[in-house]
Specification:
ParB/Sulfiredoxin domain-containing protein; five-stranded mixed beta sheet; elongated
Length: 198
């Protein structure tokens, strides 16, 4: 069954925790919100089309972040089990844009290198020697692997940077995470990465 991907205003879908609770406790809302503020589009949420309107089934925190950031649009996947008449009605609404998932996926795969924000929150702010250690151990791993890294900043207990990484090849990520784990264990604990608890 093809993926039915749409764009919609973030205030359109309803959150109903009694029926579709947010079970993802791995995300830190304020950390996630900062991370998502750095790029668009946000990851797609899941919705169920119902006669009363769309209801969020997954991605609750992504939706709330989009609302808090004042984003005019968010992507959503219409989940199986949606009411067919409600789906048709939703797709006819003027504020809904249908997207071609196959086309989007192909365009992303066609880019061998993609810029990606890396956002870390630590248990406490890093001292200057700890910042240098992070840059040597974690950012250094990316540089040694041939990735370009820029816009490095240390603000409070957050460090972030933009890295150009292989888009379709994730073989680098395991060793990269191991370097991060080493820093977290030996120097300063990492609380979250990309808004997700480390």
């Amino acid at each position: 069954m093809p993926i039915e991907l749409i764009e919609m205003p973030p205030d359109l879908p309803v959150i109903d925790e009694s029926r579709f609770p947010d079970r993802d406790s791995s995300l830190v809302p304020e950390h996630l919100e900062h991370y998502l503020s750095l790029f668009e589009p946000s990851p797609a949420i899941g919705i169920r089309a119902e006669p009363g309107g769309p209801v969020v089934t997954r991605g609750h925190k992504y939706l709330l972040a989009a609302r808090n950031l004042g984003r005019p649009r968010i992507r959503a996947v219409i989940q199986p089990g949606s009411d067919s008449a409600a789906t048709a009605e939703l797709l006819r609404r003027p504020e809904i844009t249908r997207l071609d998932w196959t086309e989007i996926d192909a365009a992303e795969r066609a880019q061998p290198i993609a810029d990606q924000w890396h956002v870390y929150y630590f248990e406490r702010p890093l001292t200057e020697p700890e910042q240098r250690a992070f840059e040597d151990l974690v950012i250094g791993f990316l540089l040694q692997a041939g990735n370009q890294v820029r816009e490095i900043s240390h603000t409070g207990n957050r460090t972030q940077f933009l890295a150009a990484v292989p888009a379709g090849d994730e073989s680098w990520f395991g060793p990269y995470r191991a370097a991060t784990q080493r820093f977290s264990t030996e120097i300063v604990p990492v609380v979250s990465f990309q808004g997700r608890r480390f």
